[in-house]
Write a structure and sequence with these properties.
30% of the residues lie in helices and 16% in strands. The protein has 21 helices and 26 strands. The strands form 7 sheets. The chain has a 9-stranded mixed sheet with strand order 3-4-7-6-5-8-11-10-9, sandwiched between helices. α16 packs parallel to α20 and α17 packs antiparallel against α19.
């Protein structure tokens, strides 16, 4: 019986009532205790206590009971002044941080993801309702102490279905943006306009028109995010308008077919006229799914608000899944995670990916003071600058002004055009492979992000060279004949050569895996790989960039960290054992809908951002030989895109060669970052050469980090043979369908 009582006591202790996070800090400081002293007494790290006080994490047993006991004794010594006030921009704001009240008799134990207690502040016409992390919702006993307005606001806050991840607080240390980077604006059943922010915060909105909503956002909402780089700019606040909000502010819930094709509502729309009368301006793309409303900057002060309109297809379902259909609070949580880990969305994931490059490497900075003490704008070292540069003719896509003199129907071959693209290669299976039971696909995590890591790319214009000596450290495009590189014998180490079956391998030099037939243009990583394989090369000409640097390193690191943090929230951590990793990946998508969408959006940000480096014309009456809008950007850099794709393809081929040399196994199909092997078992562990838990050096390794691989899917060998026979396609790329085995007319590229 004593043991049973102990278990009951432990269960009660696991739900010990704690005051809100700010009250915890107040009590500690009131007694003159440091974080280190509390951490030492509880036998935890200093950062752990700091996290409890910030509301980022919550204590668990057995520390929770001891921490609650400490705070309870301190609360007896230093009771909170419930009438205390703090000034906020000249307005008296009522604080409701009383020490935790005793729970009412009917109160239920609080689960760790329950809706926390609301912090409510009333400033002018704006009421804020913010939950404190993992504390109880307002009980009947605690409600009477609040004002009528507070009670009304709190009742409108929907209970949070999940707690927001630790990295998405409603604000930060910058009080200008204390309510977070964005808000989802909706209208409740009573007709009240509400702004749902990250961290469960809800603001009452008194604005009656769109111009007044913009004014409210800039003057009262305290939305936005600090700049990502010293010379950069703070992120403008983002408002996401629900269908109800669109109706309230006189905007259409959906776009007509004509408006959708134009990407905007007409300039004569009444709301556009309202904005113009209030001296607000729209960017050249007009009032569309991602509208930017601004006034010209005065000095360093910006006045700009961005709108995201999901029902106008602002959130592409290919990358954002069902995000547009989520309730406002859930959508705010999802976009808040993305904004805090990547950046506040500036448009599509592709646009945001490109904007992230610029945010991390702003084109200009302030110079050192001159003799008169004045500073001037100068190019920021390591950036692409503020002016666009012409690419090399071989790097220009068809229709580029540099190619205007070519005959109208001329088709450029490999010796005229740089063609660095991802793999799309497959081959018939051998008799030995047909005797095996399974086809197993493995997929490289964040492959193109990994390809960007540490890559030296050009920062300025190219220099044309004739008969140059190849320099693997010099980014650029090289015209060289690689047809003599024989994959049947290649160098796989400093002094180690391997004999391979070249007929079972894709060539690393062409996306289709075909052996080159003569001179062709290649990016530096491709030519460097030919040298690495042990072959001499003699370039014919080149366009190189002496002004260069690792422009994409910060971009890669931020996206990598965002990806790893979100996957960790989903239960998949770095450095897991191979079997544990495969188990954690199995079904991770079902653990949290919103975070799964964030993962998808992060991946799309990588690929889309790189794709934007070579954006093609988008209608607008363009004709071949004429410039298009994207060419005016300094970030229109097809050479950088080509270098990343080249390096990614070389990285994959290097692993394929290492695996073949060590195991004698060859891929059946390769599509972009997915590789399919025939195996006797259904798991990657049935063919990957792990020894005592360690992978083949330089080969494929299971794990969540970018560049490592995960299980993409498994089908039977009979399935593969039947599919190829049915479509009379012995080289049908099975990697495209390995995930679920479903073959449709739609090609998803995976």
């Amino acid at each position: 019986m004593s043991e049973l009582f102990d278990r009951i006591d432990a269960l009660v202790a696991s739900r010990s009532v704690l005051p809100p996070p700010r009250e915890r800090k107040r009590l500690r400081q009131a007694h003159g205790l440091t974080l280190d002293e509390v951490a030492s007494a509880l036998d935890v790290r200093r950062a752990t206590v700091s996290g409890w006080e910030a509301g980022k994490t919550e204590p668990r047993p057995p520390e929770r009971e001891a921490y609650a006991r400490l705070l309870g004794k301190l609360a007896e010594l230093y009771p909170a002044d419930t009438n205390a006030t703090v000034p906020v921009e000249g307005t008296v704001v009522a604080e409701t941080f009383a020490s935790a009240p005793a729970p009412a008799p009917q109160a239920q134990p609080v689960p760790t993801d329950a809706a926390p207690e609301a912090e409510t502040m009333t400033t002018g016409q704006t009421t804020r309702t913010r939950p404190a992390a993992n504390s109880v919702p307002p009980t009947a006993a605690s409600r009477p102490a609040r004002t009528t307005r507070t009670t009304s606001s709190a009742s409108r806050r929907p209970a949070a279905r999940k707690a927001a991840p630790a990295a998405t607080p409603a604000g930060g240390t910058d009080l200008r943006f204390e309510n977070g980077p964005l808000a989802v604006v909706d209208v409740d059943a009573d007709g009240q306009v509400l702004a749902y922010c990250v961290g469960g915060l809800v603001l009452d909105v008194a604005a009656k028109s769109l111009p007044s909503l913009v004014e409210w956002t800039l003057k009262e909402a305290r939305l936005g995010a600090p700049k990502l780089s010293g010379p950069g700019k703070d992120a403008d606040p983002l408002l996401v308008l629900t269908e109800a909000a669109l109706e309230r502010y006189g905007l259409p819930v959906t776009l007509t077919q004509e408006e959708r094709l134009a990407g905007r509502i007409p300039e004569g729309h009444k709301v556009v006229k309202q904005l113009a009368r209030a001296d607000w301006k729209l960017t050249k793309r007009g009032f569309g799914p991602w509208a930017r409303i601004y006034r010209p900057a005065t000095g360093s002060e910006r006045a700009c608000v961005q709108l995201c309109i999901p029902s106008w297809h602002a959130l592409d379902s290919r990358h954002w899944g069902p995000a547009a259909q989520l309730p406002p609070a859930d959508l705010a949580r999802l976009l808040g995670v993305y904004a805090s880990r990547v950046m506040t969305p500036r448009g599509s994931t592709a646009v945001t990916g490109l904007e992230l490059m610029t945010a991390l490497h702003p084109p200009t900075r302030a110079s050192e003071p001159d003799t008169d003490g004045k500073r001037h704008s100068e190019r920021n070292p390591g950036s692409l600058g503020k002016d666009p540069v012409d690419c090399a003719p071989c790097e220009a896509p068809d229709g580029h002004p540099l190619l205007a003199d070519l005959p109208r129907f001329h088709v450029r071959g490999p010796a005229e055009k740089l063609f660095e693209e991802a793999y799309d290669w497959a081959r018939p299976m051998t008799d030995a492979e047909c005797a095996l039971r399974h086809l197993v696909g493995i997929d490289v995590n964040m492959a193109f992000a990994a390809g960007a890591n540490g890559l030296v790319v050009g920062l300025g214009a190219p220099t044309h060279l004739k008969a140059p000596v190849f320099d693997a450290k010099l980014p650029g495009s090289w015209l060289v004949d690689l047809s003599h590189v024989d994959l049947s014998r290649v160098k796989i180490g400093k002094d180690t050569w391997a004999d391979l079956d070249a007929s079972l391998l894709p060539s690393p030099f062409t996306p289709k895996g075909e052996r080159p037939q003569g001179p062709a243009w290649y990016a530096t990583p491709t030519v460097a790989y030919a040298v690495e394989l042990g072959y001499d090369i003699t370039p014919i000409e080149a366009y190189v960039r002496y002004d260069n640097g690792r422009y994409l390193d910060g971009w890669y690191q931020r996206l990598r960290d965002a990806y790893l943090a979100t996957m960790a929230d989903l239960g998949v951590h770095a450095d897991m054992e191979p079997a544990d990793f495969l188990a954690a990946m199995d079904g991770y998508r079902g653990r949290d809908t919103e975070l799964t969408i964030v993962v998808s959006a992060i991946k799309a940000t990588v690929k889309g951002g790189l794709g934007k480096l070579r954006e093609r014309p988008r209608g607008e009456g363009w004709k071949p030989g004429q410039p298009w809008r994207a060419l005016s950007r300094p970030t229109w850099r097809p050479d950088i895109r080509a270098a990343v794709i080249s390096r990614t393809r070389m990285n994959l081929h290097r692993k394929i060669v290492k695996h073949a040399a060590f195991t004698g196994q060859y891929p059946v199909a390769v599509l972009s970052d997915c590789v399919v092997y025939a195996a006797n078992g259904p798991s990657p562990l049935d063919f990957l050469p792990y020894r005592d838990g360690k992978p083949l050096p330089g080969g494929f390794k299971l794990g969540i980090n970018p560049g490592l691989v995960k299980h993409e899917g498994t089908q039977s060998v009979l399935w593969g043979e039947e599919v190829r026979e049915r479509f009379d396609a012995p080289e049908l790329n099975l990697a495209r369908y390995i995930k679920d085995g479903q073959i449709t007319d739609k090609d998803s590229g995976k």
